[in-house]
Each structure stands twice: as structure tokens, then as C-alpha cells.
Write a structure and sequence with these properties.
Chain B: Its main location: membrane. Chain B: Residues 2-238, 255-499 form the ABC transporter domain. The complex is a heterodimer. In chain A, 74% of the residues lie in helices and 1% in strands. Chain A is mostly helical. Chain B folds into two domains: 2-244, 3-Layer(aba) Sandwich (Rossmann fold); 262-333 and 418-502, Rossmann fold. The A-B interface holds A 1-5, 17, 191, 194-197, 199-201, 203-204, 206-208, 210-217, 270, 274-275, 328-329 and B 69-71, 74-75, 80, 82, 86-91, 95, 99-100, 102, 108-110, 112, 116, 120, 123-124, 128-134, 138-140, 143, 151.
């Protein structure tokens, strides 16, 4: 590559900026590694294959949702509906399982995708703020869920004979299917974000929407697609959960949207959009899950500590990100 | 090649364009000038598909065209470079150049290696040396502007419209930009060039079209027109009338026998200022000259306490001001009109009245309640005194012209009853008529005993407006011009840092 136009004296600051940039994008990975290593030495039961596999499996449901959220935040938006949509997807899947495996898979994906599509259309065409539109989506999805489950009193069970259970309970090479699904989904997501024109457009919209528009990029279409995919993935996360628990639990997903947003931001995606990585979000989800697991290991600790610690870490990471961003700029 | 015939466009009953004919030919660089509100931006927006004309036609290559969106115009081969760079700062240079048209691998994925290679070739061919993998936002504005041009070149544009591309560039960058523009013209691209810096037009453009009040008043070659003639067309005044007042509206030298009211010494700001000092007396206008990056804005910000200084002192009326504290500077009587009025000053959706009142809210409030009547009286005074053209004090500031917005800001600071007024490029980006008014106003304020520090990139403004000119270079005072040496020639030499003047320079 050609030399830069800057004076040689700025090499050092450039080097610092590069380190700061890596730290900003991969900070969560560093924390994750430290926590995992520390926990492995502290708790005998943490580092076992069974426990690690359990963490990965538990994290996979949120990870699917976080993937969609990553694209939404990257585009400068926010999707508050995912928690409710996640729960709705689970209930629909459990209900559908009574009518066949295909119904269990297709029903939640189609319904949740449709919710995402409508949100995307209103946000893109109507120019309304995503916060409000997806807040409406949150209420709508939660209401729909309560309607079809007699205000949450009916918990649909996946029939014991249904092949649908296999989706989340089965495993390959000793690792549960959900983990494999997450691995594939994030690989595809990474390619889409960094190597497709859709991905570039998402980043451009998040970075400078006016510019993206003036460059003639398909801004509206990209937004619609992004929110639709977020809806589909939230629904899919829910259906995986239903398959795993063999039932459509109606009380799930309350506050999940916030947990997912936290994971994405922990992973280094700028909440203002325009920059970040898909892998970072996965790390963010894993970090939250590891913290939860560690707190469970300390049997005496109230499980609510998990939220307290996660919140603290989130605050520290965001503050660090801000600080690192100023270091980069200097 | 690209022309409009009888284009008319109005917004809510206000005619922005009335039957404008405009024609751009292959390979020419065509200047488009006019005061703010003359219709330049609207014409550009019609050409680029942002607006559609109410009547009249746009023709491209002899055929009538209708652009519904900016993307349509782009596809047809018309690119626009805006005043504020319209690219994505968080993406790399190469990504920005190829957004939407990335080279693909056989699998349909973006071919990053090819993209970077082609981007490097492209910017190289434009004579720009830059790491194409660097995030755009980490680069200077000049380089960003070049990247925007590179993008225009890469889409094989046949028409490139440049809307005030130089307003944030340094002299050297402007030179490179012009080279690139000429290069494009030689390849047969037609360029439309808009700039408030009139001097640039003669350096670059072949022909000029002047708009006034939404109408075309003149089209012709620039060589046949001198600066005065051009201004006369823009203002619609007689040439003799323009000449009488010089090129600016500044009056004669002011009184300055008193003790300095502002004395700054040895201001040090990391990487920016190295021991800058200056003094201003009441009733004096001190010009602060220097190229972009020389530390002009940093100096006034440091005086104002908005930029942390490592060392140095600021005294106002003999009393030392606590460093790095805007409230203390304000209380001591220092006001700063910052360069970027959009980002750092005006609140577009608030009324004229509320914008003016912001700075004095603490003064006119008692127990958290605002004395509305006192504000009304204050605002009325300033509207009259500064001749602010607003329908009423309740009108929203966004609806005012750039010049009047600037006056509203000046009024806001005057409310604080400053002793020292720091003005950072007060006339940038406002039209010729309003410029003259702002200049006359600065003059008037100085006559009334205010000490003024005036930063300007326009040499005329410094030479005619200031009593003394301090020239900065790389964060140090390089020269001070007063008396006989207060001429454009001397200023140019000082700015350019010509060897002869170096010996006597830096004598503060």
C-alpha cells in the first residue's frame, strides 16, 4: 500500500491508535479470556467439558437473537421487540409442534419475520424512529403471545414423539445442534457484513445515513431487510428454546432485548452504528453467559448478582470504548 | 452536455428559481455564483435529482431527463461533491470509493484485495498519496474531499458538480483539488464549481453563470470579467458603487491609545500552540491570520478557556483569568463566536428571541424564573441595532439567511456585555451582501470600544478590517503587520512564509 500523507512524527500516535482500535473492538474477548481462565482455576467444576458445553448451549439461544440485533445496531437502529418476539416464537413453535414439525419451524419464522417486516417498512418508509416503532412491536408481540396462550395460562407442550425436539436436544460430535447452528449463522453473518454489498450498505447507513442516500445506496430496502432478519432470528431463537425445553414458556423474553443489546455493545459494536463485528456480539453473549455460570458456581451467591455484575461490566466497557475512541482520534 | 431550460422551482410560495437557463459543455469548468438565496443550491439540487422542477426541463446529452432521486442522476453519470464531505467516516477509503459497486469474487462476495488495489491505483492517478485501508474519518478533510472526487471518477461521471468543495481545505489541498479538477476536464468531464471564495474562480474556471434572486443574470467567460464586475453582477449594483467602499465594508483605523484590555502570553497547547501571545486594546480590531492549521482557532479557543492550555496566561483588563474555564472567561468579559455556527452555536429550531437569550439566561433569571419582559426588551434592542432581518422575534432561526443567523449569534454574545469579542471566521459561508453588513457591524462594535479579535481566511477582510494583523504559523506568532506593512502583499508574504520576511518575523 502507498505511504500515508501524514508526517513521520505521527507514526507513534498512529500505532497507539491502532492498538486502541483493537482494544475497542476486541476488549470483550480479552475480558472473556480472563474470566474463563480465572474461573477454571477457581472452580473445579467450571472447566469441565460438560459445563463448557452447557454454557455454549445456553448462550446459543441469545446468540441467534444477538446476530440480528448486531445488524440492526450497526445500521444505526435499535430493535426493542426482540424479547417479546423471542417469546412469541417459542410459543408459536410449541403450538405448531402439535401440528407437525414443519409447522413448528415455519410458523414462528413466518410470523416473527412478518413483525420484523412491518417494523422495517414503517421505519424505512415512514421515517419513524426505530425506538418507538420497535417499542410498539414489543407490546404487540407480547400481547399476541398472551392472546394465544390464555393470558399465559396455557403452556403448549411439544409432543414427546415430535421430531421438533431433536432440533435443540440432539447433538453432533457430542455438541448440541444449537451450538452448530450458531457457529454457521455467525460465519454467514460475518461474510454478509464484511464481504457483501448489503453489509457495506448497513455500515454506511449506520455511519452516515445522508451520505449513503446521496451515494445512491438502497437505504430503504436495506433497512427493511435488516429489521425483517432481526424478527426472523428472534423468532428462530425462540423456536430453538421451545425445542430445547419441549414447551412454549410464556414468561420468557422479558428484558431479553436489553440483554441482547448489552451483549452487542459489549462486543464492540458502536451503539450509534457504523462499526463493529459479528464475532464481537458472540463474544458478548458468551461473556454474559459465563458470568451467569460463574455466579451459579458460587452456590451461596444470589443469582441476581449476575445482573449487577453484567451491568457493571457493560458500563466499564462502554466507558473504555469512549475513551479509546478519543485516543484513536488524537 | 447538461442544460436546464426555463427551470422554475418554488417552495411554499417562495420562488427559488425563475426560468433559469443553464448550459454546461464537455470539458469545461463552469463557475456558478450568486449570493445565498440566489438559487445556486436549488439549481444544483434540480440537476442532481434531489428536487424536481415545477416547470422547465433538464436535458442531458440532448435528451430530456427526469431524475426522481439522487441515485438516478448518479446512474446517468452526474456526481456531486458537497461542502461537507458526504462519505462514511467509519469505513475505509477504498470502501467509500466503491460503496455500492464493490468488485466481486466468483462467489459474489466483495473482493477486498481487488478493491484496495483499484482504489490505490485510482487515488494514485489523482496525485493523492493515501493509505486506502485507513478509515476515512482518520484522514484530513482535504484528503476526504479527494476521496469524494476519486469516487466520482470511479463511477465514470461525465458531470461533476462541486458545491463549495474548498471551504474547509488548506491552500495546498486546494491546489491538488484544482489539479484533479483540471485533469478531469481534460478528459472531457464537465464540471460545475460553486465557491464563495471568488479568487478561486479565476484560477480554475472557464465560464461563469451568475444567479440573483432565482434568475440568471449573466453567463460568460471569466477572463472577460474582473472581480468587481462579478460582484456587481451578484449584487445587482453599479460597479462604481461597489468600488467606492473597497472590496469590504470596513471603515478606517480605530482609536487605540488605551491600555490593552486583553493580554495573552505564552499560550501552550499540546501539538497546537507554542507560546502564542497577543494583546488587544479597547476599540481595536486585531486580525489573526494564518493558513488552516496554523493555530488561529486554537488561539482564540485557548483564550476563551475552551481548549486546555499547558501554560500561559490570559489577562482581561489587567486581571488574570483562571485558565481552562469558559465560565471564568465569560465572566471576565470574553466572548467567542466560533467558526462552526451550525455545530457550536445556533439552535435552528429555537426562535430568534430564544437563541439570543440563551447566553443571558442566568443573568435575567431570579430563583430559576426567567424575566421574560427583560428578555423581550433586550432582544428588541439587538434586532434593531444589528439590523437583523426576521419576521418577528418568534421566527425560527433556521428560516433566516446565513448572514442573519450569524447576526443572531453576534447578538447573543453582545448580550453578555463582553469587553473582548473573539470572532472566528464570522463571514465564512455567508453571501456577499450579508458579509458586508457583518463587516460593517464589526467596525461599529470596535468604534464603540469593544476589543475585537478577527480571524479570517480572506486577505481583504484582514487587511481592511484589522488595525493590526498577527500572523500565525505552526502554532507560533510569525509576524505582526501594522501601519504601512498592513497590505495584502505583506500579508501574503507573511502567510506564505517567504524567506525575506522570516528575519524580521516573530517579533512579538
Amino acid at each position: 500500500m502507498t505511504a500515508t500523507v501524514e508526517a513521520p512524527g505521527q507514526d507513534r500516535t498512529r500505532g497507539r491508535a491502532r492498538i486502541a482500535r483493537v482494544a475497542q473492538r476486541q476488549g470483550a474477548l480479552v475480558i472473556l479470556a480472563v474470566v474463563v481462565v480465572a474461573a477454571t482455576f477457581t472452580f473445579d467444576s467450571f472447566g469441565t467439558a460438560g459445563n463448557l458445553e452447557n454454557i455454549a448451549l445456553q448462550a446459543s439461544f441469545l446468540a441467534v437473537v444477538a446476530l440480528g440485533m448486531t445488524f440492526v445496531i450497526m445500521s444505526g437502529g435499535i430493535d426493542l421487540s426482540v424479547g417479546s418476539v423471542f417469546a412469541l416464537g417459542g410459543v408459536l413453535a410449541a403450538w405448531g409442534a402439535g401440528h407437525g414439525t414443519w409447522a413448528a419451524v415455519l410458523l414462528p419464522v413466518v410470523v416473527c419475520g412478518a413483525i420484523g417486516l412491518v417494523q422495517g417498512l414503517v421505519i424505512a418508509r415512514g421515517g419513524l424512529p426505530p425506538f418507538i416503532v420497535t417499542l410498539a412491536g414489543l407490546l404487540f408481540a407480547r400481547g399476541l403471545l398472551l392472546l394465544i396462550s390464555d393470558e399465559g395460562a396455557t403452556t403448549y407442550k411439544v409432543p414427546p414423539s415430535s421430531a421438533f425436539r431433536e432440533l435443540a436436544q440432539g447433538s453432533f460430535l457430542g455438541i448440541g445442534y444449537p451450538v452448530w447452528i450458531v457457529a454457521v449463522a455467525f460465519s454467514v453473518g460475518g461474510l454478509v457484513l464484511h464481504r457483501s454489498s448489503y453489509g457495506s450498505t448497513v455500515l454506511a447507513i449506520g455511519g452516515q445515513e445522508d451520505a449513503a442516500d446521496l451515494m445512491g445506496l438502497p437505504v430503504l430496502r436495506t433497512k427493511v431487510v435488516t429489521y425483517t432478519v432481526s424478527g426472523v432470528l428472534a423468532g428462530f431463537g425462540g423456536l430453538l428454546m421451545a425445542s430445547y425445553t419441549s414447551s412454549g414458556v410464556t414468561v420468557l423474553g422479558v428484558g431479553t432485548e436489553l440483554e441482547v443489546i448489552a451483549a452487542v455493545v459489549l462486543g464492540g459494536t458502536l451503539l450509534t452504528g457504523g462499526a463493529g463485528t459479528v464475532l464481537g456480539s458472540l463474544v458478548g453473549v458468551l461473556l454474559l453467559q459465563v458470568i451467569r455460570n460463574v455466579i451459579n458456581q458460587i452456590g451461596s451467591l444470589n443469582s441476581n448478582w449476575q445482573a449487577v455484575i453484567s451491568g457493571t461490566i457493560l458500563l466499564v466497557v462502554v466507558t473504555l470504548q469512549r475513551w479509546l475512541a478519543t485516543v484513536q482520534r488524537e | 452536455m447538461l442544460e436546464t431550460r426555463g427551470v422554475t422551482k418554488s417552495f411554499g410560495g417562495v420562488h427559488a428559481l425563475r426560468g433559469v437557463d443553464f448550459a454546461l459543455t464537455r470539458g469545461e469548468i463552469h463557475a456558478l455564483v450568486g449570493e445565498n438565496g440566489a438559487g445556486k443550491s436549488t439549481l444544483i439540487k434540480v440537476l442532481t435529482g434531489v428536487h424536481r422542477p415545477d416547470s422547465g426541463t433538464v436535458r442531458f446529452d440532448g435528451a430530456e431527463v427526469e431524475f426522481h432521486r439522487p441515485a438516478d442522476a448518479q446512474r446517468a453519470g452526474i456526481s456531486t461533491i458537497y461542502q461537507e464531505v458526504n462519505l462514511v467516516p467509519l469505513l475505509s477509503v477504498a470502501r467509500n470509493i466503491f460503496l455500492g459497486r464493490e468488485p466481486r469474487t466468483r462467489l459474489g462476495l466483495v473482493d477486498v484485495a481487488a478493491m484496495n488495489r483499484r482504489a490505490a491505483e485510482l487515488v494514485g492517478s489523482l496525485g493523492v498519496n493515501v493509505d486506502v485501508t485507513a478509515d476515512l474519518g482518520t484522514l484530513g478533510l482535504g484528503v476526504q474531499q479527494m476521496v469524494a472526487l476519486a469516487r466520482a471518477v470511479s463511477v465514470d461521471s461525465r458531470v461533476v458538480i462541486m458545491d463549495e468543495p474548498t471551504s474547509s481545505l488548506e491552500a495546498k489541498e486546494v491546489g491538488t483539488l484544482f489539479d484533479v479538477a483540471r485533469n478531469l476536464a481534460a478528459r472531457g468531464v464537465g464540471l460545475v464549481f460553486v465557491s464563495h471564495r471568488l479568487d478561486e474562480l479565476w484560477r480554475l474556471c472557464d465560464r461563469v453563470t451568475v444567479l440573483r434572486d432565482g434568475q440568471r443574470v449573466h453567463t460568460g467567460t471569466l477572463a472577460e470579467l474582473d472581480r468587481l464586475g462579478l460582484i456587481a453582477h451578484m449584487l445587482g449594483r453599479e460597479i462604481s458603487e461597489v468600488a467606492r467602499g473597497g472590496a469590504t465594508e470596513f471603515g478606517e483605523t480605530h482609536l487605540r491609545e488605551q491600555e490593552p484590555v486583553l493580554a495573552a502570553e505564552g499560550l501552550e497547547v499540546r501539538n497546537r500552540l507554542h507560546g502564542v501571545g497577543l494583546t488587544v486594546r479597547p476599540g481595536e480590531v486585531l486580525g489573526l491570520g494564518g493558513l488552516l492549521g496554523s493555530g488561529r482557532s486554537e488561539t482564540v479557543k485557548a483564550v476563551y478557556g475552551a481548549l486546555p492550555v499547558r501554560s500561559g496566561s490570559v489577562r482581561v483588563a489587567g486581571r488574570r483569568v483562571r485558565p481552562n474555564s469558559v465560565p471564568h472567561a465569560l465572566r471576565a468579559g470574553v466572548a467567542l463566536l466560533s467558526e462552526d455556527r451550525k455545530a457550536e452555536g445556533i439552535i435552528p429550531d429555537l426562535s430568534v428571541r430564544d437563541n439570543i437569550a440563551l447566553a443571558v439566561l442566568p443573568k435575567v433569571s431570579r430563583g430559576g424564573l426567567v424575566a421574560e419582559k427583560r428578555i423581550d426588551a433586550l432582544v428588541d434592542t439587538f434586532l434593531r441595532r444589528l439590523r437583523i432581518k426576521a419576521a418577528s422575534p418568534a421566527q425560527k432561526v433556521r428560516e433566516l439567511s446565513g448572514g442573519n443567523q450569524q447576526k443572531v449569534l453576534i447578538a447573543r454574545w453582545l448580550c453578555t456585555e463582553p469587553k473582548v469579542f473573539l470572532l472566528d471566521e464570522p463571514t465564512r459561508g455567508i453571501d456577499v451582501g450579508a458579509k458586508a453588513e457583518v463587516q460593517a457591524l464589526i467596525d461599529e462594535l470596535a468604534e464603540q470600544g469593544l476589543a475585537v479579535v478577527l480571524i479570517s481566511s480572506e486577505m481583504d477582510e484582514l487587511v481592511e478590517g484589522a488595525d493590526r494583523i498577527v500572523v500565525l504559523h505552526d502554532g507560533t506568532v510569525r509576524d505582526e503587520l501594522s501601519g504601512d506593512r498592513r497590505t495584502s502583499a505583506a500579508l501574503l508574504e507573511a502567510l506564505a512564509g517567504v524567506a525575506e520576511t522570516n528575519e524580521e518575523g516573530g517579533d512579538d
